[in-house]
Amino acid sequence: MEIDNIVDLETIKTNMHAKSKDDALKELAELLLQNEYISDINGFMTDIYEREAEGQTGIGNYIAIPHGKSNFVKEIGVAIGINEEEIPWETLDGNGVKGVILFAVGNDNEGSQNHLKLLSLFARKLGNDEVVEKLLQSKNPEDVKEAFGQ
Amino acid sequence: MNIVGIAACTVGIAHTYIAQEKLENAAKKAGHEIAIETQGTIGTENELTAEQIADAHVVILAIDVKISNRERFEGKRIIEVPTEVAVKSPNKLIEKVEKIFEQSNQEREGK
Questions:
Q1: What backbone phi and psi angles, to 5 degrees, belong to A9?
Q2: pLDDT of A69-101, one tens digit each?
Q3: Looking at the 3D structure of chain B, how many domains does it have?
Q4: CA of B97: how far to CAs of A33, B2, B14, B16, B81, in Å?
Q5: Domains: count for chain A
Q6: Could you confirm whether the keyword Ligase appears in this record (chain A) (predicted)?
Q7: Cβ–Cβ of A124/B17 closer than 8 Å?
Q8: Which of A70, A104, B20, B28 is the most exposed place for a label (fewest CB within 10 A)?
Q9: What is the CATH number for B74?
Q10: Is B54 at the interface with chain A, CB within 8 A?
Q11: Contact B42 A51 (CB under 8 A)
């Protein structure tokens, strides 16, 4: 089991220029749709916003982890966006956000224990300052993948 | 100091594990032994053993939801915070835990 399997180069976007949280979420959800992780953008976004309403997903250090469980998720995955400018976001340290990690997880995870396990290991990496620092400096999807490979 | 604890957030996908990583790193950096159990969507992982709990000086509960098997910590010194405190300022939290530990030791000696 490798974290590599959860980080998909096709769902990573660097040098993004999203101006708002909504822009960033839509851009990343689009990637998830194109690569068949989700079946519907609007439905998925509604579920993500439900979690956003419950509390801050900006964890500080310019990172946000929007997530939620959604019936529109076909396969567990993550989309990662690295934005050039800070995006206004509700965060624990009051700063904006440059790295957005959008989690896609279904409501019924029967048979997905392996993927969930990978996702938890992946999430853990976001608690590591060195990983985050490297992540934010990523210039292309390969850099992002490498940051999580540490 | 020996620390055990539990991390559990509302959705059980992200904050739980970030809190675990941050608490472990902060405690180790300060020279403590630490073990954090996670209760998330995937279920309980890194489950604390009876021995780990018995040896622990302090229990940190970084939780946003009701956890299972809380009674294991009965009689222990428990510090409960929301997961975001562990995510936002893990080093400060560990410092606070150290102070609480020292104070209660002094109280014990004073008796």
A1: -55, -30
A2: 999 999 999 999 999 999 999 999 999 999 999
A3: 1
A4: 45, 11, 24, 19, 11
A5: 1
A6: no
A7: yes
A8: B28
A9: 3.40.50.2300
A10: no
A11: no
The DSSP secondary-structure symbol of B71 reads G
Closest alpha carbon within chain A to B88: A92
Confidence of residue A109 (pLDDT cuts 50, 70, 90): confident
Q: Which CATH number fits the domain that encloses residue A44?
A: 3.40.930.10
In this prediction the pTM is: 0.94
Instruction: Give the range of the structural domain holding residue B20, as residue numbers without chain letter.
Output: 2-110
Specify whether the CB–CB gap between A137 and B25 falls below 8 A: no
Domain that holds residue A87: 3-148
Average pLDDT score, chain B: 95
- Residue A70 in contact with residue A108, Cβ under 8 Å? no
| 3-state per-residue secondary structure call for A96-114 | CEEEEEEEEECCCCCCCHH
pLDDT(A150) > 70:
no
